[in-house]
Amino acid sequence: MIFLSRTLPVIVALCFGVLGIGIYYVPHAAAQNIERELALWLRIVFAFSYLLGLYSLLNLHWQRIRQRVEGWGYSAMVYAGFGLMMLFVIYNDGQGPFAPQAEGTAAENGYQWLFEYVQVACSSTMFSILAFFIASAAYRTFRARTPEAALLLVAAIVVMLGRVPIGAYISDYVPAAADWLLNVPNLAAKRGILLGVSLGAIATSLRIIFGIERSYLGGGDE
Amino acid sequence: MLNKALSWLAGLVCLVVVASDCRGQAAAGGSVLPLIADVAAFDTPNDAGGSITLTWARSRSIPESAIYKAYIAEANEGPYYLASEIAGGANLQSEEPETFGYGDEAQDAHFLHIAEYAGREGVISLQNDKTYYVRLELHSGNISTRNPVLTASAEGNYFNWTKLNNIVLGALLSFLILGFISLARRRDLYIRRIGGLEALDEALGRATEMGKPVLFIHGLRDMSQISTIAAVNILGRVARRTAEYDAALRVVAPDPVVMSVSQETVQASYFEAGRPDAFNPDHVFVAGTEQFSYAAATEGIMVRERPAAHIMMGYFYAESLLLAETGSTTGAIQIAGTDAFTQLPFFVTTCDYTLMGEELYAASAYLSREPKLLGSLKGQDAGKAIIIAAIVLGALLATVDIPFLTQIFTPH
């Protein structure tokens, strides 16, 4: 059992890790075919994993409904939404569940209608909430209680003014200063972070490929 | 006398005809196109095949309106089809330094890649290991010159030499990291303190004392991404601590594969901590597969269940602030870690601790305190030192017009 749960995953990680690195440097059609094949495997695994995800989601909400935990009504809405969507997918404009999904506009297709006028609308609502959250987070952060926060406040005001017409109306230097802040100190910090991220990714990959890092197999420290 | 003059005239006409045909030159109205010099045809390097390349010397004396036309055939006798045509001053080899280098000579030569041509039955792609006959012509107005027919065949290459700098630098950094891992086995290495990770124990302890769960939130990317793998590594460590402390752990994932891997990881951690009975697979679940559905579901859990600690690890997009700001209103300790630099400001403003960029990848090794893993962190730091030195040196050399180091680090 130790072999299956510990050794085999490490061997698989080593083989496919080295293969993945190798394919990146080999342009030959044989290597590209292997890459395509692996991508196909990934898609097949992903398709089956959706069943697991569906079970997980429905089971979670079923438990909440069954136990009448606080907010169980929202879980009931999950079932209602899922059932309604499923109904239209199975109906499939009268073609049944085994035909390819019918295409059409929201006016012609119930599934499209639900997607465009319910899901997209809800997602847009969530996204729009972001504006208020940015304002509240900015209010907390930009209070000039420390020299660093004061510097942040000044930089934020310059960048915000530089991005709207009133900034240029005040002075031509405001948009220029905003651009400088974004293109010099901000970009330098971004690139510094990216360099660190790249090195971190290399180190993590090496640790996994050579079996030094095994915490993804469990919390062991071996 | 007349015969002699006619003979001379005929001889002169013959000479002109032979010269224009045999030497590849045409003359009309007093203008002459130069010969196309140093023409070569060969397999395009560094590709999967299906392409051949023509190169020839640049001529600075051709008219601006001149165009080069490349013809291709499957037999020496033809028929020849037009494969490509370019302006007389276009496609200098200096435009493709990854293939032809950075030398000054690249300014004095042209190139042309041919991957397909318009045949009688439509567009035909070049096949590997098949001999093609190519001919290059230079046209300007109604005069032209052509080079002799050359042969070449396309083939797939086994190494992409344009990525040589990548593999050398990657190998250098890898050996450095592996070297430090080896060194860490023999002696203790100093690792700088990472505040966010030191706070993990505090957050888990607080959750235990309050009897409330710890909520681990995955980023949006799938399991093939290194940031998600790093997040799962951290989850393994966190799960082991929660198992030891007997604290409840909830894990939300936006992807079924991430959920499955997380379930296995948490289960193994609970098993190793000697608490297999405490593991509940229903506590690791998919909260939603769409970005904002996921955010809404997770926010609902934060508000209703009021976890004592929120641990957000992985690659986040716009949902980062929705999650972190909602979390901060619940009073939970929030620790975030991401390599998405666009989302870092949001986490920094709303979370108690933020692991920035590389710290996300360092977290698992740091938490384990295992010498081998800590050695890799030291290797990362050494790699950074080398890169910083290269940046400073490269900037100095580029300032004095020596771009050698810049070219070494240029990705292709």
* Helix/strand order of chain B: HEEEEEEHEEEEEEHHEHEHEHEHEHEHHH
Residue fraction in strands of chain B: 15-25%
Q: With helices defined by DSSP (H or I, 4 residues minimum), what is the helix count of chain B?
A: 12
The separation of the N and C termini of chain B measures 71 Å
Domain unit count of chain A? 3
Structural class of chain A: mainly alpha
CATH topology of the largest domain in chain B: Rossmann fold
Task: Evaluate the radius of gyration of chain A.
Answer: 26 Å
Give the helix level of chain B as a range of percent: 40-55%
Cα-atom radius of gyration of chain B:
34 Å
Which regions of chain A have little confidence, pLDDT < 50, spanning 5+ residues?
none
User: Structural class given helices, strands, pairing of chain B?
Assistant: alpha/beta
Q: What's the rounded overall pLDDT mean of chain A? A: 87
Query: Shape of chain A from CA axes?
Result: extended
Q: Can you identify the CATH class of the largest domain in chain B? A: Alpha Beta
Going by CATH, the architecture of the largest domain in chain B would be: 3-Layer(aba) Sandwich
Number of DSSP-assigned strands of chain B: 18
Could you spell the SSE succession of chain A in H and E letters? HHHHHHH
The largest sheet of chain B, given as strand count, sense and whether it forms a barrel, is: 6 strands, parallel
Helix content of chain A: over 70%
Strand order of the largest sheet of chain B: 15-14-13-16-17-18
Explain the overall architecture:
- The complex is a heterodimer of chains A (222) and B (412).
- Helix content of chain A is 78%, strand content 0%.
- Chain A has 222 residues and is mainly α.
- Chain A has 3 domains: 1-67; 70-129, no CATH class; 142-222.
- Chain A is extended.
- Chain B is of the alpha/beta class and 412 residues long.
- Chain B has 3 domains: 31-153, Immunoglobulin-like (Sandwich); 161-176 and 375-408, no CATH class; 189-369, Rossmann fold (3-Layer(aba) Sandwich), CATH 3.40.50.
- Chain B has helices at residues 2-22, 97-100, 164-186, 195-210, 226-245, 256-272, 291-305, 319-329, 344-350, 358-368, 371-399, 404-408; strands at 27-28, 31-32, 40-43, 52-57, 67-73, 81-87, 109-114, 116-119, 122-125, 131-140, 143-146, 150-153, 214-218, 249-253, 284-286, 309-313, 333-338, 353-356.
- Chain B has a 6-stranded parallel β-sheet, with helices on both faces.
- Chain B starts with a helix and ends with a helix.
- Mean pLDDT of chain B is 87; it is low at 13-30.
- The chains are: A mainly alpha (222), B alpha/beta (412).
- At the A-B interface, helix 1, helix 2, helix 4 and helix 7 of A face helix 3, helix 5, helix 6, helix 7 and helix 8 of B.
